[in-house]
Amino acid sequence: MSEPIRVVVTGAAGQIAYSLLYMIAKGDVFGPNQKLILHLLDIPPMMGVLEGVVMELADCALPLLAGVIPTADPAVGFKDVAAAFLVGAMPRKQGMERKDLLSANVKIFKVQGEALNNNAKKDVKVLVVGNPANTNALVCSHYAPSIPKENFTAMTRLDQNRAQSQIAARLGVGISKVKNIIIWGNHSSTQYPDAKNGTVEIDGSPKSVVEAVANNDYLNAEFVETVQKRGAAVINARKMSSAMSAAKAASDHMRDWFAGTKDGEYVSMGVVSDGSYGIPKDVVFSFPVQIQNGQWKIVQGLSIDDFARGKLDITAKELLEENEEAMAVCASD
Ligand code: NAX
After folding, report:
1. Closest residue by CA, ligand 1 atom 4
2. For this structure, is 253 an active site residue?
């Protein structure tokens, strides 16, 4: 057993955290030999609810859990953390314009960026789940200049998992047979779920998804739309947004970031663009990445057909607009 690491989850009294905390505390993310001290950050009115979560974590009797620190103070929440799950964000309320949502979130992620900068370990790995996730990650990084930009990522793993699951169901194979499905761009309805670089194992041998599905109309239309609209479909059915699956995706994202990806496999993460695939620099864009020793690298040389090019440009344009709005709010603050 190694020394415990400190891990913060924000929005700790919310519904994603309710599933995520258990996954982290039982070893799904940092492995079965890594002890943890969990920092639970939420806002003052939620401290009573958070107390209940603390009681339940104790009642889970988890051997890896070396401590739990519930707090509404970002300086305490981010103190010495090695990993940060930024789940809490301002939800969109009725009548709220996109701009209002963005400016409320810019304020939250400014405060949290500063608190990370002043309190967290300098090699902290930050995953932003709270929406608009990509732009929130950029804002957070902007206010944490002492932490490398590469350490700020946004979650598109739920979209990837949804896409992988759609292809597995379509082909009637187990989920683990489907690999390298990509989510490009923003975690929004402009994202481009791309199965055309994916592979599937059928009867023991790998095939391209394009060949196995043998229906490009499906891959370009129904598949893309189903993944893009899956979040809304869950809300319609559950009357609440995806939580268990979002928590599983956050746990997958951070596990792969710490432990690395398997040979020949890649995963999608919102990361700061270096201009790869003609995407403007410095937006947080979801790319396929491979990870070794805790460092991600964008997978190069994948084929982008005209259809994909159009989709990538649309989602990049949306991100540039969001960034401009966010930076205007930052500047006026
Ligand atoms: P909940 O409303 O259940 O929980 C959010 C929690 O965050 C609340 O307890 C709230 O008090 C807390 N919070 C608000 N401001 C805070 C602050 N400044 N510091 C700390 N905590 C704060 O939402 P939940 O369903 O858990 O969703 C959380 C976020 O994830 C939302 O922004 C949601 O849009 C986003 N999602 C992102 C996904 C992704 O793939 N990137 C998918 C799932 C989810 O929709």
Report:
1. 14
2. no
Contacts of 199 (CB under 8 A, 6+ apart): 178, 179, 180, 206, 207, 208, 209
Indicate which residue's Cα is closest to atom 18 of ligand 1. 108
Q: What is the pLDDT of residues 256-291, one digit of tens each?
A: 999 999 999 999 999 999 999 999 998 999 999 999
**Helix or strand run (H / E) with residue 8:** strand 2-10
Do 179 and 311 share a domain, yes or no?
Answer: yes
pTM beyond 0.70: yes
The domain that holds 85 is classified in CATH as 3.40.50.720
Structural domain count of the chain: 2
Residue finishing a domain among 120, 154, 188: 154
Q: Using a 6 Å cutoff on CB, does residue 318 contact ligand 1? A: no
Q: If you ran DSSP here, which 8-state letter would residue 264 be given?
A: T
pLDDT of 210-246, one tens digit each? 999 999 999 999 999 999 999 999 999 999 999 999 9
Domain interval for residue 282: 157-320
